[in-house]
Amino acid sequence: MEKAIINRVTTSGLTTFDLTEYYHRGERIIYDLKSNLFMGMILKEKDFRAFLKVHDWTQYEGKNVAITCSEEAIIPTWAYMLLTLKLEPYASCIVFGSLNDLEKKLFDEALGKVDFDEFTDKRVVVKGCGELPIPTNTYVELTRKLQPYVKSMMFGEPCSTVPLYKKPKV
Fold it and tell me: What's the order of all strands across the beta sheet hosting 14-17?
């Protein structure tokens, strides 16, 4: 007589927190102010304002935009602010910085919407493998936010976890 195969993972009482469920699917792009520089060195206010008036901003509809300048140029703060005002009606998310900075912002916003009360006194496994790039900063922020609620926290997959935290018994 064969013994029935028991899936101990499903009966373990573990709750998986999968950060890929919070991944914003929108396209990520960089807006490089380099193309607005005069002779690749300076930003002329008059020319920049003229560009802002005629540029087709609808192309940024629903996109996530990282604003940067890849040239060694001094860009006045107001230029980033004007650019943001033009992008705001169209873009889903706008940040100053790199695509990594954009990714961090998107995940921070997603984690800000999580109701962590649902993890109260649960044994949580933070899923560690996936096809989508999750910034390390996001794991740090998730750990900080989850810890006050959970009974225990692990990292990895339910079948192979690294213990991280266990609530002290009172």
Answer: 14-17, 123-127, 152-157, 160-166
* Token digits of residue 28: 């990520």
Domain ranges of the chain: 14-24+115-166, 28-91
Q: Please state, in angstroms and rounded to a whole number, the distance separating the CA atoms of residues 41 and 132.
A: 37
Tokens representing 147 are 């810890």
For residue range 23-44, list pLDDT tens digits in order: 888 999 999 999 999 988 899 9
Give the mean pLDDT of 69-81. 94
Could you tell me if 19 and 127 are in contact, meaning their C-beta atoms sit under 8 angstroms apart? yes
Residue with tokens 């999580």: 114
Query: Angle between the 136-146 and 99-111 helix axes, to the nearest 10 degrees?
Result: 20
- State pLDDT tens for residues 159-169: 889 999 999 98
Mapping DSSP to helix (H, G, I), strand (E, B) and coil, where does residue 36 land?
helix
Angle, to 10 degrees, between the axis of helix 77-87 and the axis of helix 45-54? 10
Cα–Cα distance for residue pair 170/44, rounded to 1 Å: 65
CA distances to 19, 27, 37, 76, 146 from 23, in Å: 7, 11, 34, 33, 18
How far apart (Å, rounded) are the C-alpha atoms in residues 34 and 93?
Answer: 21
